């Protein structure tokens, strides 16, 4: 096999693996689609495998393609670094980064990121688009975003995921709520009317999964798709809500709320950063990821008063 292959074929294989679409791979390579298809036919003969199967969105890699992807990717990375070491100068860069974030991530990171940009990278632009956690992988695959922040339960071999910060869920209610200022029992909790933050639109969350395992359920009276709305809505209603503690810490309605522990164990709300393999060694992308990670290290620990 190695006597019949050349770097151009590996380069084309890489582009198709990254785009999972022959037309987009051709655009990425500045080639015609027939030329890319011809190269794939050569690779199929060499590997004795189909490598890519047609699907509605483009192509899907076979197990053999996935097996080859790791060593081919790493080899091309080393070759490129040896021939043309990349460089990036933040202060003079005029790059635009598009990030998929929910309001929780925006509230945590942007107040810290903007001063960094103003001082170290004044001409870099940031674009924020909505993140529902289920749309991020598709946006990354199609090169529509550079990075996503959220909680990602499904990814692919082409996507890198890194946990960057953990938060814990607490229960909030208005200060004069009948359940306030005393230990909240599980029985009281499930009988209350609940507000759920759901980025996907589904009226179910981590709490409901835990309750189902206990053969219990609760009434979700209201769902919203923004964390920042929750404290104000809770402060003016009889609803209660389980949300990450950091979301309440600096909210202007914080003083109108009673905060207490949940009467059941819920897994921490780990925030993850996800990006495409194509950006792994890109110096500009590495710089942005490092800035976001440093912001996390400086965030104070929060506790229930």
Automatic annotation (TrEMBL):
InterPro entries: LysR-type_TF, LysR_HTH_N, LysR_subst-bd, WH-like_DNA-bd_sf, WH_DNA-bd_sf, YidZ_PBP2. It comes from the Bacteria. Keywords: DNA-binding, Transcription, Transcription regulation. GO terms for molecular function: DNA binding; DNA-binding transcription factor activity. The keyword DNA-binding applies. Pfam families: HTH_1 (PF00126), LysR_substrate (PF03466). Gene3D superfamilies: Periplasmic binding protein-like II, Winged helix-like DNA-binding domain superfamily/Winged helix DNA-binding domain. The keyword Transcription regulation applies. Residues 5-62 form the HTH lysR-type domain. SUPFAM superfamilies: Periplasmic binding protein-like II (SSF53850), Winged helix' DNA-binding domain (SSF46785). Belongs to the LysR transcriptional regulatory family. This is Transcriptional regulator, LysR family. It comes from Acaryochloris marina (strain MBIC 11017).
